[in-house]
Amino acid sequence: MTLNGWLQIAIYFAVLTALAAPLGRFMARTFDGERTFLTPVLGPIERGFYRVAGVDERTEQSWTGYAVAMLVFNAAGFFLLYAILRLQDVLPLNPQGMSALSPELAFNTAVSFATNTNWQNYGGESTLSYFSQMVGLTTQNFVSAATGVALLLAIIRGFARASAKTVGNFWVDMTRTTLYVLLPLSILLGLFLVWQGVPQNMAAYVDATTLEGAKQTISQGPAASQIAIKQLGTNGGGFWNANSAVPYENPTPLSNFVEMLAILLIPAALCVTFGRMVKDERQGWAIYAAMSVVFLACVAVSYWAEGSGNPLLHALGLSGGAMEGKEVRFGIANSSLWSVATTAASNGSVNAMHDSLTPLAGLMPILLMQLSEVIFGGVGSGLYGMLLYVIVAVFVAGLMVGRTPEYLGKKIEGREVKFALLGILVLPLFILGFMSIATVAPFGLSSVQDAGPHGFSEIMYLYSSSVGNNGSAFAGFTGNTPWYNITGGVSMLVGRYFMIIPVMAIAGALVAKKTAPASAGTFPTHGGLFVGLLVGVVIIVGGLTFFPALALGPIVEHLAMLAGQTF
Amino acid sequence: MLNHLRPALVLLGAFTLLTGVAYPFAMTGVAQAVFPKQANGSLVEQDGKVIGSSVMGQSFVSDRYFQSRPSATVGPDPADSSRSISAPYNAANSGGSNYGPTSKALIERVQADVEARKAQNPSQPVPMDLVTTSASGLDPHLSPEAALFQADRVARARGLAPDRVRELVERTVEPRTLGLLGEPRVNVLALNLALDELGAR
């Protein structure tokens, strides 16, 4: 640990907070259909899309109509991507002659990108053509992120509107998010990345002859355009196999800083958007504060653990933080910070190999994913997930004082609490359920690379990442087997849609309710007491569920490492 | 359900054309015009031939050059393409070792490398990054300590004064960006190119 390291972390968080406010306000205006400086350019495109699609932007949908529209759109995206991956050998833009993907791998990858998970059971540069990367994956990077934001807008309207029937129009919300938010930011970030050294070409791989006369084949491709949206849309699927650790994806400390900002930028800004849309920005900042408390605590533990290093290596006469699976240009502090940011958000891109993190630093990503990605979380999905915890928190507060719980003037009743708990509890069921099968069955254990508690952590990481829709991995693990392709795919679907449907049902229930004016007995939800309560509920409900499993994996491994034991 | 099909299919098609075709091609056009060198992979040429990329790391094994960090990348076995074998700095298949912190294989590998490095230079402690594999297997950098650790060996192999080689390393060190971001580092390819020039003069 160095002073410079802590300083880099502090500056990162300060810049993130400073950018969240203006972007959040801009998004609130955009989603309400107000004119912004982008309207003259993008307005005609937006209206053109509605015209050919037969969408009337003033007609809104009930929560069921909205949810069905989303499901139909996601299903269509899944089938298109599946078809592209299965047919990539006959499609154009394939200079390396990549063959078609197997059915299981194509299923896993298509689910992975349609659900905004972006788990990589394929290796980008060794498996996919440029056509698959661009037309297939880049498109899903945009629309799966836009889907998350649209769903968030529906539940926000549930709180903001009173005695209404509709929660918005899915097509309009999705289109506006893509056109006005994701695309302009991606263009800016993409060009910045090219400047820093990220390739953007359609050329074949380059054969170089090194100074020593050896041959090196260097992969190329339209990388910057995809990496920009992969970070901004909390997608995280790398253009290259080793993701943002590859120098071509992330060439400099500056590119690293900006990509790390891009990972959390939109999820952080959406807190402000939420506050604006419910007409009380303080409510959004209270949620932002709760997320920040957990985030900064995890960063501190991770950097402390990584900075202390691995005593097994120190015993060999080495000193300093463990550099196995890390890049020199990023060092310990930026690797720790990224590993927490990418798993707090449901991004899942990595700039260091999480499998090689010291045990307690490796615990932080697993924990953040198991909290169902609500610490900033995925674009849209993080905040709607957090709103489920908010409902539980006000319910707990209501029980303590014996009053009907309220949030933003809406009475929280049995129906909402039941749906919120359903959305929260289905995740541990699938993470722990699949895990317990995989840890005893030969087809589950054969994929594990490391023996001992670390192997257990590898299996736990896979299902936490899939259900949490994160997509990062303890990558020594062989995920590309029929069992893991299929159960991983199912986990991603469950993690995405079994959370979405309760969220939409809550949106539908809330939007019909009257808004009660605040009274002397109303529990204020913008102060420190509420922030503390919310953090407590997230940790107790989300974290304690997994504590026994975490104790058997990273915690045992930490103690073994201190005792000098290897496996 | 059916009334959603038209907007779903039309918008999916429209966004595929916009974000999957127009956006990457437009970005390629702009990038090629404004930053042609970076957009084409920051390739480094010598006498008209590509010798590598200034961004991507490559393998150096000779004592006459500064050697890169160990790399865990693999490539297909030429004898049997269904199996993969160790192929350090394979820039068409990035990846790390992914060994966990308590892995016996990791500790044994590092121990062997530490002993080999100590044999080359017993006078200094072995730097951590010189015996650990990077995340991508394509790390283009060494820490300044890891480069300086090799300076005497390189000087011996080339018959140069050690001080000149050490001074060259110190001149090649890239500091933290804005004095703040990242870590100080040395680009191995740039250092080795400068080294060849030093010998030629």
TrEMBL record, chain A:
<protein>
    <recommendedName>
        <fullName>Potassium-transporting ATPase potassium-binding subunit</fullName>
    </recommendedName>
</protein>
<keyword id="KW-0472">Membrane</keyword>
<comment type="subunit">
    <text>The system is composed of three essential subunits: KdpA, KdpB and KdpC.</text>
</comment>
<keyword id="KW-0406">Ion transport</keyword>
<dbReference type="GO" id="GO:0030955">
    <property type="term" value="F:potassium ion binding"/>
</dbReference>
<feature type="transmembrane region" description="Helical">
    <location>
        <begin position="6"/>
        <end position="28"/>
    </location>
</feature>
<dbReference type="InterPro" id="IPR004623">
    <property type="entry name" value="KdpA"/>
</dbReference>
<dbReference type="Pfam" id="PF03814">
    <property type="entry name" value="KdpA"/>
</dbReference>
<keyword id="KW-1003">Cell membrane</keyword>
<feature type="transmembrane region" description="Helical">
    <location>
        <begin position="179"/>
        <end position="198"/>
    </location>
</feature>
<feature type="transmembrane region" description="Helical">
    <location>
        <begin position="66"/>
        <end position="85"/>
    </location>
</feature>
<comment type="similarity">
    <text>Belongs to the KdpA family.</text>
</comment>
<keyword id="KW-0630">Potassium</keyword>
<dbReference type="GO" id="GO:0005886">
    <property type="term" value="C:plasma membrane"/>
</dbReference>
<feature type="transmembrane region" description="Helical">
    <location>
        <begin position="497"/>
        <end position="516"/>
    </location>
</feature>
<feature type="transmembrane region" description="Helical">
    <location>
        <begin position="142"/>
        <end position="159"/>
    </location>
</feature>
<feature type="transmembrane region" description="Helical">
    <location>
        <begin position="285"/>
        <end position="305"/>
    </location>
</feature>
<feature type="transmembrane region" description="Helical">
    <location>
        <begin position="419"/>
        <end position="445"/>
    </location>
</feature>
<dbReference type="GO" id="GO:0008556">
    <property type="term" value="F:P-type potassium transmembrane transporter activity"/>
</dbReference>
<feature type="transmembrane region" description="Helical">
    <location>
        <begin position="374"/>
        <end position="399"/>
    </location>
</feature>
<feature type="transmembrane region" description="Helical">
    <location>
        <begin position="257"/>
        <end position="278"/>
    </location>
</feature>
<feature type="transmembrane region" description="Helical">
    <location>
        <begin position="528"/>
        <end position="552"/>
    </location>
</feature>
UniProtKB/TrEMBL annotation, chain B:
<keyword id="KW-0547">Nucleotide-binding</keyword>
<keyword id="KW-0067">ATP-binding</keyword>
<keyword id="KW-0630">Potassium</keyword>
<keyword id="KW-0813">Transport</keyword>
<comment type="similarity">
    <text>Belongs to the KdpC family.</text>
</comment>
<keyword id="KW-0812">Transmembrane</keyword>
<keyword id="KW-0406">Ion transport</keyword>
<dbReference type="GO" id="GO:0008556">
    <property type="term" value="F:P-type potassium transmembrane transporter activity"/>
</dbReference>
<keyword id="KW-1133">Transmembrane helix</keyword>
<keyword id="KW-0472">Membrane</keyword>
<dbReference type="InterPro" id="IPR003820">
    <property type="entry name" value="KdpC"/>
</dbReference>
<protein>
    <recommendedName>
        <fullName>Potassium-transporting ATPase KdpC subunit</fullName>
    </recommendedName>
</protein>
<comment type="function">
    <text>Part of the high-affinity ATP-driven potassium transport (or Kdp) system, which catalyzes the hydrolysis of ATP coupled with the electrogenic transport of potassium into the cytoplasm. This subunit acts as a catalytic chaperone that increases the ATP-binding affinity of the ATP-hydrolyzing subunit KdpB by the formation of a transient KdpB/KdpC/ATP ternary complex.</text>
</comment>
<feature type="region of interest" description="Disordered">
    <location>
        <begin position="68"/>
        <end position="97"/>
    </location>
</feature>
<keyword id="KW-0633">Potassium transport</keyword>
<keyword id="KW-1003">Cell membrane</keyword>
<feature type="compositionally biased region" description="Polar residues">
    <location>
        <begin position="81"/>
        <end position="97"/>
    </location>
</feature>
<dbReference type="Pfam" id="PF02669">
    <property type="entry name" value="KdpC"/>
</dbReference>
<dbReference type="GO" id="GO:0005524">
    <property type="term" value="F:ATP binding"/>
</dbReference>
<dbReference type="GO" id="GO:0005886">
    <property type="term" value="C:plasma membrane"/>
</dbReference>
<comment type="subunit">
    <text>The system is composed of three essential subunits: KdpA, KdpB and KdpC.</text>
</comment>
